[in-house]
Specification:
heterodimer, A: alpha/beta, Pyruvate-ferredoxin Oxidoreductase, domain 3, six-stranded mixed sheet, B: alpha/beta, Rossmann fold
C-alpha cells in the first residue's frame, strides 16, 4: 500500500469538486491515513477555475501540493487538466472528464478553445485517462453524479478498496441520492483498467 | 487506526474547528461580519446550543457587541477578515486599555495572496500596535485547541486576545479531536467605572496596567505550551508560526524548529536560547518581516526576507527554493491557455445594471466590494474604482467636489445591499448633507452573496435564517434626506437604462435601488424560472447578447461558407447560442435581442 500521496482536483466552480474531494478524503481517512485538504472559497467560486489539494500519509503538515508532486490529477474539464501541468511529474496519472466548458474569452469569440490540448500531457509521457463522466451520469439517471463517477475512475489509482468508497457514500450522501451515487462510482470505476 | 467519528474524531475545516473550539471554551456571545476567509466560523458557531451569535452590519459594531458581552461577564468572540479589523480598529485599541470581565477573543482571518481580498495586509502588526497578545495556529486541530488558550489568556491577563488565521488554516480540512466543553461564567451586572470609562484620567491609569500586563505576557510566553522547540539535526534552525511552520516541516523535516503559537509578545529567552543552539537562523514567515524585525531588534543575527518572499502565500516548494536554491528540480512549464476568471453567474441581476453603465462611456463608476466588483471584467468593463467597503459612495462624492460642474452627469456609485448597510449609508448621509450630485445605485439582491449567502439587516432574516426585522432601503434613503429614490428591476434591461440616464443626469443626489434576488438563492433556484432558448435561424450575429458576458451565452464563429450552409447571409461572422442547462431564465438577453432570436423556452 502506498504510504503517502498527493491528489489534485481541478475544474470549474459548480462542478461538484468539493464533494468529490470530500469523499476521497474520507476514504483515505478510513484507510488509516492522516489527511489534509485545502480549497479556496469566495471569489474563486463564481464560475472561475477551482482547485482542491488533498494530501495523505502518516503525518501531513502542509495542506498544499508542491509543484511537480501531484501523483493524481482529477480534472473535471479538459483545459483545467492542462492548466495544472506544472504540478505534474512524469509518473502522474491524469483522470480527465472530456467535458469542455468555454472560458469567457472563448465564449465571447476572442479566443479559441485549443484543439487536442490533452496531447500536451501525453507528449510528456504523462498517463492520461480521458473519461466521459457525463455519459456515466446520464446512464445512471442523475446528471449531478458526474463528480462521483470521476471519483470512481480515479479510485483505480489508489490502494483503498472500492468498498471503502461505497461505505463513505453510504454515510456522507443524503439517503435519496445514495444508490445512484454508488452506481455512478462503480460505473466510473469500470471506465479505467490499469 | 482507521478514522472513527464515534471516537471523538472529526474531519473539520479550520473555521469549523474554531467554532467548535469557541463553543468548548464556553463562549456565550459572538458577533461578526461575513468576510472570506472568516465567514464559516459564525455560521457554524450558531449551530451550538447556549451560544448567541449574530451578523453585525459591520466589524466595528460586531467587536463592540463582543466588548459589551465581556463587560457583562461572559466569554465573547468577534470574527472578521483582515480588512474588517481596520473597521474595528477603533474599539480594538481602547478595549486593550479597558480589558473586560469575561474573556474576549478577536479573530482576524488574513488572506495572503489575496484569493478574495483587495489587499494582503499582515494583521500581526495590530498585536504590536494595540499592545495585546496574539495567537496563531497552524492547522484545524491546533486552531481548536488554541481557542481555549486564547480565552484563558484573555481572562488571566485581563486583555482582549487577537487570534490570527490565514486562508490556509481557515479553509484547510484536517482531523480534529472533540474535547469537553467548559460551562463558562454566567452574565451579571457589575460597575467598574475606573476600568471601563476611558476618560483621560482613567485611561492614563489603564495605560500603566497595559504595560504591566504585556510584561506579564512576555514572561508567560516563555512557558506557554503553544511555543515549543522541536529538536533536530544540522547547522540551520528555523523560527516560524502559523502555516509557515507546515511548510518548514515539509521542506526541512530534519531541521531544528522553534514553533511559535503566540506570535506576540515574543518569548525572548526562548528565542535567544534557540538562536544560540544553531549556526544559522532562518525566520520563515508569510508577508511582513514581523518576527524577523522584532528578533533582529533583540540583537540576534538571522535570515528572513533576504531569502523568503514578502508577498503572496508561501508553500513548502517556495520555502525550500528560497533557502536552498539549487535543491529544486525542473518542473513542467505552464502552457499559455485561455484564462478562466470568475464571472457574474447566469441570471445575475447585477448584469442588468452594469450592461446599462457599460453603454455610458463618459460616466465614472465608483465601485465597491462584492460579487458586483466583477462588473470590472470584460465585456462589461463598467467599474472604474474599488477601494474598500462603502467607499463607492464617498469616493464618488469626493470626485463631484473636485470636478464641480465638469463632472455633472458623469459620476455614479455602485454598491450592494449588505455593503450599503455596512458603511455605505454614512457616506450617503454625507452626500446629502454636503450636496452631492452623485447617483448611488444600491444593488439589492436580498443577501450578502459574495461570501456565500449571509443574511443582513435588509434581508429580513437573522443568522439562523429565522424571520427578523428588515430595514426598508427606500424609507432609509428617504429619511437620510435623499430627494430622489427610484426602484428598478434590473432584468428589465431597457427600462433600467432609461432610469440610469435620468438619475445620473439629475443635479441632485439620487438613489437607484436595483432590486432582484441573487440567482443562486435557494428560493430562486427552486422556482425554476424556465430557461431562455435561441431561435438560431433568426440570429443575425449582431453580438448584442454576447456583450452581456453571460456564461450561458456563447459565440460560435462561422466562415462565409459555413454561414451560407446554415442559411445565413455570407457576411455573417457567427451566431450566438444559449446553453439551456446553464440559463436561469432572467430574460435580459431576450429583451435585448431585436431579431426574435431569443425567447423563453416554450414561447418561441
Amino acid at each position: 500500500m502506498k504510504q503517502s500521496g498527493n491528489i489534485l482536483f481541478s475544474g470549474v466552480g459548480g462542478q461538484g469538486i468539493l464533494l468529490a474531494s470530500e469523499l476521497t478524503a474520507y476514504a483515505q481517512l478510513q484507510a488509516g491515513f492522516d489527511v489534509k485538504k485545502s480549497e479556496v472559497h469566495g471569489m474563486a467560486q463564481r464560475g472561475g477555475s477551482v482547485e482542491a489539494h488533498l494530501r495523505y500519509g502518516e503525518r501531513i503538515y502542509s495542506p498544499l501540493i508542491e509543484p511537480g508532486t501531484a501523483d493524481i490529477l482529477v480534472a473535471f474539464e479538459i483545459l483545467e487538466a492542462v492548466r495544472y501541468l506544472p504540478y505534474l511529474h512524469k509518473d502522474s496519472a491524469v483522470v480527465v472528464n472530456t467535458q469542455k466548458i468555454l472560458p469567457p474569452a472563448v465564449a465571447q469569440g476572442q479566443m479559441e478553445y485549443p484543439d487536442n490540448i490533452l496531447e500536451e500531457l501525453t507528449a510528456r509521457s504523462i498517463n492520461v485517462v480521458a473519461v466521459d463522466a457525463f455519459a456515466v451520469a446520464k446512464e445512471v439517471g442523475e446528471l449531478r453524479t458526474a463528480n462521483v463517477a470521476m471519483v470512481g475512475a480515479m479510485s483505480n489509482f489508489l490502494s483503498v478498496a472500492p468498498q471503502v468508497f461505497l461505505d463513505v457514500i453510504d454515510s456522507k450522501v443524503k439517503p435519496a441520492f445514495r444508490e445512484v451515487n454508488k452506481q455512478a462510482f462503480e460505473a466510473g470505476r469500470k471506465l479505467v483498467y490499469n | 487506526m482507521a478514522f472513527d467519528e464515534n471516537d471523538n474524531k472529526l474531519w473539520l475545516s479550520g473555521n469549523e474547528a474554531i467554532a467548535l473550539g469557541a463553543w468548548e471554551a464556553g463562549v456565550k456571545v459572538a458577533s461578526g461580519y461575513p468576510g472570506t476567509p472568516s465567514t464559516e466560523i459564525m455560521g457554524n458557531l450558531v449551530k451550538y446550543d447556549g451560544v448567541y451569535g449574530e451578523w453585525a452590519p459591520n466589524e466595528k459594531v460586531g467587536l463592540e457587541v463582543a466588548i459589551g458581552a465581556s463587560f457583562a461577564g461572559v466569554r465573547s468572540f468577534a470574527t472578521m477578515k483582515h480588512v474588517g479589523l481596520n473597521v474595528a480598529a477603533d474599539p480594538l485599541f481602547t478595549a486593550a486599555y479597558t480589558g473586560g470581565r469575561g474573556g474576549l477573543v478577536v479573530l482576524t482571518a488574513d488572506d495572503p495572496q489575496m484569493h478574495s481580498s483587495q489587499n494582503e495586509q499582515d494583521n500581526r502588526n495590530y498585536a504590536f500596535a494595540a499592545k495585546m497578545p496574539m495567537l496563531e495556529p497552524s492547522d484545524p486541530a491546533e486552531a481548536k485547541a488554541m481557542m481555549r488558550t486564547a480565552f484563558e489568556l484573555s481572562e488571566q491577563l485581563d486583555t482582549p486576545v487577537l487570534f490570527r488565521i490565514t486562508t490556509r488554516v481557515a479553509h484547510v480540512k484536517g482531523v480534529v479531536e472533540k474535547g469537553e466543553p467548559v460551562a463558562g461564567a454566567e452574565a451579571g451586572l457589575e460597575k467598574m467605572p475606573a476600568k471601563f470609562v476611558m476618560l483621560p484620567g482613567n485611561a492614563r491609569m489603564r495605560r500603566i496596567e497595559m504595560e504591566k500586563r504585556m510584561a506579564a505576557a512576555r514572561e508567560l510566553a516563555e512557558t506557554l505550551a503553544e511555543n515549543r522547540t522541536e529538536e533536530g539535526a544540522g547547522p540551520r534552525g528555523f523560527i516560524c508560526a502559523g502555516t509557515s511552520y507546515n511548510y518548514v516541516k515539509e521542506a526541512f523535516p530534519e531541521a531544528p524548529v522553534l514553533k511559535l503559537g503566540m506570535v506576540w509578545p515574543l518569548p525572548e529567552q526562548m528565542i535567544r536560547d534557540f538562536a544560540a543552539s544553531v549556526d544559522e537562523l532562518v525566520i520563515v514567515e508569510e508577508l511582513d518581516p514581523f518576527l524577523e524585525t522584532h528578533i533582529k531588534a533583540m540583537g540576534i543575527d538571522c535570515h528572513g526576507k533576504d531569502m523568503i518572499p514578502n508577498q503572496g502565500e508561501l508553500n513548502s516548494f517556495l520555502v525550500r527554493k528560497s533557502v536552498e536554491p539549487d535543491s529544486v528540480g525542473e518542473l513542467f512549464a505552464p502552457l499559455d491557455l485561455p484564462m478562466r476568471p470568475p464571472n457574474m453567474c447566469a441570471g445575475c441581476p447585477h448584469r442588468g445594471i452594469f450592461y446599462g453603465l457599460s453603454k455610458m462611456k463618459d460616466v465614472f463608476v465608483s465601485g465597491d466590494i462584492g460579487c458586483y466588483t466583477l462588473g470590472f471584467l470584460p465585456p462589461l468593463s463598467a467599474m472604474d474604482s474599488c477601494v474598500c467597503m462603502g467607499a463607492s459612495v464617498t469616493i464618488a462624492h469626493g470626485m463631484t467636489k473636485a470636478l464641480g460642474k465638469e463632472g455633472e452627469g458623469k459620476v455614479v456609485a455602485v454598491l450592494g445591499d449588505s455593503t450599503f448597510m455596512h458603511s455605505g449609508m454614512t457616506g450617503l448621509l454625507n452626500a446629502v448633507y454636503n450636496e452631492s450630485y452623485a447617483t448611488v445605485i444600491i444593488l439589492d439582491n436580498r443577501i450578502t452573496a459574495m461570501t456565500g449567502h449571509q443574511q443582513n439587516p435588509a434581508s429580513g432574516k437573522n443568522i439562523k435564517g429565522e424571520p427578523a426585522n428588515a430595514i426598508n432601503l427606500e424609507k432609509l434613503c428617504e429619511s437620510l434626506g435623499v430627494p430622489r429614490v427610484v426602484v428598478v428591476d434590473p432584468h428589465a434591461i431597457n427600462a433600467t437604462r432609461k432610469v440610469l440616464k435620468e438619475e445620473i443626469a439629475s443635479p441632485e443626489p439620487s438613489v437607484i435601488i436595483s432590486r432582484a434576488p441573487c440567482a443562486l438563492l435557494p428560493e430562486v433556484v427552486k422556482a425554476k424560472n424556465p430557461p431562455c432558448s435561441t431561435n438560431l435561424e433568426n440570429c443575425t450575429g449582431c453580438r448584442v447578447c454576447v456583450g452581456l458576458g453571460c456564461p450561458a451565452i456563447s459565440w460560435h464563429p462561422l466562415t462565409a461558407e459555413q454561414a451560407v450552409e446554415r442559411g445565413y447571409k455570407e457576411k455573417q461572422k457567427g451566431y450566438a447560442m444559449i446553453t439551456e442547462v446553464q440559463c436561469n431564465g432572467c430574460g435580459q438577453c431576450a429583451e435585448l435581442c431585436k431579431f426574435d432570436a431569443i425567447g423563453k423556452r416554450g414561447e418561441n
